[in-house]
UniProtKB/TrEMBL annotation:
This is Organic cation transporter protein. It comes from the Eukaryota. Pfam families: Sugar_tr. It is a multi-pass membrane protein.
Length: 553
């Protein structure tokens, strides 16, 4: 970059302290949104938990309990499980023709006292509506990821975080009072959209004020509060069995986000690039005071910021800005860049392999989490363990890719996930613990795979297409996360092993596809598509890999 030959932002930041108390407090505030995202991302496992149910008998009232003799007269029974059918009844007592549950359903209160499934009868022929609840939430994450980045670049990181947090508080609390399925899904979409906006924009803000030596570590640790929220969810759900009260319990802590309005600074880097140098100086002065550092004179700081901005924009401080492109031109340019991802043979192979691997790792990550609740006798324990295994998975993944290499680690995580999940099908139907153990091995591997693919993708796309390649790959991950609940909810009633078969085979095929990707460990990063087509993956200098982590996220 041009700034490399003049003043760099890291030099400016170091004057105020690049890893002090100011940064630590900002990271603590970022944990609030991260924990809340972890709870809400998987809350449908309990808010939308499916209780055991059967058809209501003709004339049966909600508070009545039919005798065992009546149930045998009116309901078909499954000889293998000894339980009555969930979606059929006889046309008459002792009849021989089945009907749907035209009189409604009776739900067990043993595991869940109340869920949206029991309140709005999202079972049997309406089960797809429950899958849509989680899919629409993932679609909210999809939209939030795309739009929040544009908004934070246009209006600033702090403003996006603050306004999104207010909408998050309102939508998440209002969800507890939703009077209809449509209202519930809409509010969940808004919660996902705004929660992702807070999570992503806070991540960008945190990374922009951290020194280069700490960015990789902070980027890794940033995921751990998400896992903590993930683990806190089943504990709350175990204590609060009514879905409306549970929604209130996991949403109430979001009022802490109002503190963002007073505690969060704007990114000084963003302010400099917007030519708002006095405001950037105010932020740096506050950072230096908190970090107990002494800044150079205001004039010297203004000079350094002006030089940095001029080098970054390739303009002198006195030049005018180039006219901005129209929205139509920007859109056309974006489509052109996406086409370049598949325009040449090697670039096409890398891009398609990346798209498939991102789709599969997200499909397995979310699919195994939700399916583990069905494989275990206790969904509370299953979801807690699914969150717990994320912490060691993330902590082990990054050191492993430096020692073993990116591609072998990627292949290994997919193979481990696929093999473990496929082995679930060999476990007898009535055995819970072996299934849950194998599911957690698959979850561990998919969590490690997610950590690996984030770093790996930033290395195998050329510099000229790195942002668009990473963004397109991430979009494919959202497709996988939206498909996961349909696989679990619609295929498991056909046979409990089908989701495991889908996830397991997907993992094995993704491992084979990952072999098409280049090894990037200790290699120079490609600059252009031409470098990719020439196979230019030369060994990097001793600090070549570290240079990647000194770039802005």
């Amino acid at each position: 970059m041009a700034a490399a030959h003049g003043v760099q932002f890291e030099e400016i930041l170091s004057r105020a302290g690049d890893a002090g108390l100011w940064q630590a407090l900002l990271f603590v505030w970022s944990m609030v949104g991260s924990v809340l995202s972890g709870m809400h991302n998987f809350s449908s496992a309990f808010v939308g938990g499916e209780p055991e149910h059967r058809c209501a008998l003709p004339g049966e009232l909600a508070n009545e309990t039919a005798s065992e003799e009546q149930l045998h007269l009116w309901l078909p029974y499954n000889n293998a499980t000894g339980r009555p059918a969930s979606c059929e009844r006889w046309d008459a007592a002792g009849g021989n023709r089945t009907l749907g549950c035209d009189a409604g359903w009776v739900y067990s209160r043993e595991r869940f006292h109340s869920t949206i499934v029991s309140e709005w009868d999202l079972v049997c022929g309406r089960r797809w509506m429950m899958s849509t609840v989680q899919a629409s939430y993932m679609f909210g994450i999809f939209c939030g990821s795309m739009i929040s980045g544009v908004l934070s670049d246009q209006f600033g990181r702090r403003r996006v975080v603050c306004y999104s947090s207010v909408l998050f508080i309102i939508s998440s609390l209002a969800t507890a009072g939703a009077g209809s399925y449509a209202t519930f899904v809409t509010l969940r979409f808004i919660t996902a959209f705004t929660g992702t906006s807070v999570f992503n924009s806070m991540f960008i803000l945190t990374m922009e004020v951290m020194g280069p030596r700490w960015r990789s570590l902070v980027g890794l640790v940033y995921q751990i509060p998400f896992s903590c929220g993930f683990m806190a969810l089943p504990a709350a759900a175990y204590l609060v069995r009514d879905w409306r009260y549970l929604q209130l319990v996991i949403s109430a802590p979001s009022v802490l986000m109002l503190g963002f309005w007073w505690a969060l600074p704007e990114s000084p880097r963003w302010l400099i690039m917007q030519d708002r140098l006095p405001e950037a100086l105010d932020v740096l002065v506050a950072a230096a005071r908190r970090n107990k550092r002494t800044l150079p004179s205001d004039a010297e700081m203004m000079r350094m910021m002006s030089e940095f901005r001029a080098a970054e924009t390739k303009l002198s401080p006195d030049d005018d800005e180039e006219p901005q492109r129209s929205a139509l031109q920007s859109c056309a340019n974006g489509i052109g860049e996406i086409c370049r991802l598949v325009g040449t043979p090697r670039m096409r192979r890398i891009s398609l392999a990346s798209f498939y691997n991102w789709l599969v790792v997200s499909l397995i990550y979310y699919g195994v989490t939700f399916n583990s609740a069905d494989l275990s006798s206790s969904p509370y324990l299953a979801i807690f363990l699914a969150g717990l295994v994320e912490v060691p998975a993330v902590l082990l993944a990054v050191p492993l890719i430096s020692r073993v290499g990116r591609r072998p680690t990627m292949v290994l995580t997919f193979l481990l996930a696929g093999a473990a999940i496929l082995c679930i099908m060999a476990v007898p139907a009535g055995t819970a613990w072996p299934k849950l153990t194998l599911a957690m091995v698959g979850k561990f591997a998919s969590s490690a795979g997610f950590a690996v693919i984030f770093l790996y993708t930033a290395e195998f796309f050329p510099t000229t297409l790195r942002n668009v390649g990473f963004g397109a790959s991430s979009m494919c991950a959202r497709v996988g996360s939206m498909a996961a609940p349909y696989v679990v909810d619609l295929l498991s009633p056909v046979h409990w092993a089908i989701p495991s078969c889908v996830f397991g085979l997907s993992g094995v095929t993704a491992a084979l596809v990952a072999l098409l990707l280049p090894e990037t460990n200790g290699r120079r990063l490609p600059e252009t598509v031409a470098d990719i087509e020439r196979g230019s993956w030369h060994p990097a200098p001793r600090d070549g890999y570290q240079a990647l982590h000194r770039t802005e996220p």
